[in-house]
Every structure is written in C-alpha cells, then in structure tokens.
C-alpha cells in the first residue's frame, strides 16, 4: 500500500518540514480549482435555468415576418408599404393548424410610457383580450386583476410593477414624455413573471394593450408582428411547422415568414452560454498555469535541499525509479492538498456565485453542475504531478558521488 511505502513517508516528511512553503505553492491550485469549478457550475446553472424556462413554451411555434413593423406612436404605414404578417397569411396559418392548436396573432413595438411622472421604456404588445388568457396569467398579489382588458386598460409585466411599485388601478400614460397627447390607461392586472421564453413575448418589462387600442394608436391593422401557434400535442410540432411552411412560403427562394420553436432557440441559447462558460473557465485555468510554475519551483528547491539525502539513497542501492517515485509522491501530495481545499471552497463560493448571479440554486446540486468540482480537482492534481516530472527525473539521475560531495 502507498501508506506503507517508505518513499511515500519521506515525501510526507518533506512536505511537513516545509509546510508553509508547500501550502503557499498549493494556493495557486486552490485558486485554479475554485475558478474552473465555480465558473463551470455558473454556466451550467444558467443553461439549466434557460432550458427550464424555454420548456414552458416548448409547444409554441413562433411565426414572424421578414419585415418587422416598428415605429413611433402615431406612425401609420402607407397601404402600399405593407409589412408584418398579413390577414391572408393568418388565414392560411389558421386553416393549417385547424383543431391541432390555438393561433394567436400579436402586434408589438418598442415605446415609451410614463408612470407617476417617471418615464420608462419597454416593449408594447397588442393582443386580442380573448387570446391573452390562453398563454399569460395574472399575479394576484398586486390586486385582483383580469386579462379581459378594454381599450382603456393595460397589463404590465412583473419587473415594471416592481420597479414602479404598481398595482391594479394605477394609471399609465403611453407615448413620448415630451408629447402633449399621451393617452392615459388604467392597469387592469400585473402579469406573472415569465423569464426567458421561446415564444417571443417577453412581458416582464413590457406593457400589454388591447389589440384595437394598439392599431388605433400605432396603425398597421391586420399586419401582425408575429403569430404564435400553441400546439396541443408537442409531438406534432414538426409536422405543423412543415405544413405552415408549405402553405405560406410558396416562394422557396424568398420566404415571407420565419418559423421557429423552442428547440431552435434552446440550441442557440445553449451554444452561446457554453461558449461564454468555456471562455471564462479558460481564463480561470490560467491560474493553474501559474500554479504549475510555482509547484515546479518548489519541487526544484526540494531537490536542491536534499541532494545529500538523494546521494545516500542512491549509494546504498536505491533504484532511480524509487527516487523518482519519492518526488512524484511529493508533487502528488501538494496537488491533493490544493485540490482538496479548492474543491471544498468551490462548493461554498460556487453556491454563492450562482445564487447572486442567477437568483436561484435549484439546479446547483444537479449532476451536470456538481460534476465540475471533481473535474477541476482532477485537473489540479494532474497539473501538480506534471510539474514534478522534471525535478523527479533530475533527482533520480544524479551521480551519487557528486551528490555526497555537495554542501
């Protein structure tokens, strides 16, 4: 066993005699392990959180026009410059979907609003009141709200409600702060937070108005920014997408609409987060390179201080491989100390980082997340062992006579 190996005991003795120097060298390993595992866990938790949020709209197909209508309040496009999804295209989409899902046409733009003389900006969605309750829900903690809004009522997102301390009955003016004609509307409800969603309707920092009020204010009647299709059976989503594509995009060279769903957005989000996580982990890995240099320096010092001891071992018949093993044990012990402390610290620091950055630790102890701790520890140990290879080789190849003569 390794514990009963005399050369292992000699390595332990060397670390113990130079404990302060050894621990200072191991600090680099601690920092590297913490950096890699914490950033890895943060990235994984972000991916799991996004995946969970997008899964809530996994049964939704988003159909958007290649020409998105955006304009200031009061802007009305000319009849010759039609943009957005037309009524004809909506009819085709509805006929394809049939009883297999629910079709929800949506207007949207970016606009300004004023609450209690404080200006703000966010997305403004125009949706038929009968469709709102099919995919949005009310947060009753802000007062008894309803999705059945009239032309003089609006719904606001959870972030807006928190930022402006809103509740049901509060008044909001939509339009530029400098404009003299800003219609005032009553808040009929505060929406439940949605987070990152794949259906293109991010309501947390937005205002939802009656579709009739929207077209009266912004124009563009029957020219929807997007159309959402909530499919009853998610297994049929690909077939419905293909059918809509065949029906609406009759010109293959110049499709009039883009068709996406949660799976495509999830792939994009995951790829982006994975790239960012890898980049951050690579930066954290630089500390391991610094630690490798520090461990190498400590091991070279250990060899220099023990030249006579090495000479005695070699002169009494100790094999070169056993001398090498003694120094490899020492570098392994340093790596184990640094990785052990770094792993324990990673759980504490990583938990705090995830909680602060994401706001939830629901996925922290998931295998995909916690796996970064042992992986980072293993990398730390391997870096230490590699750093000790050359000093161990140099020690084992010393001439015993020259080593014994050394002062």
UniProtKB/TrEMBL annotation:
Q: Which residues form the ABC3 transporter permease C-terminal domain?
A: 282-400
Q: Where in the cell is it found?
A: Cell membrane
State the membrane topology: Multi-pass membrane protein
Domain MacB-like periplasmic core, residue spans: 22-246
Q: Name one Pfam family in it.
A: FtsX
Keyword Transferase present in the record's keywords: the answer is no
What InterPro entries does this protein's entry cite? ABC3_permease_C, MacB_PCD, Macrolide_Exporter_MacB
Alphabetized, the UniProt keywords read:
Cell membrane, Membrane, Transmembrane, Transmembrane helix
Which residue ranges run through the membrane? 23-43, 279-299, 332-351, 371-393
Provide the family line.
Answer: Belongs to the ABC-4 integral membrane protein family.
Record's protein name: ABC3 transporter permease protein domain-containing protein
This chain's source organism reads Methanoregula boonei (strain DSM 21154 / JCM 14090 / 6A8)
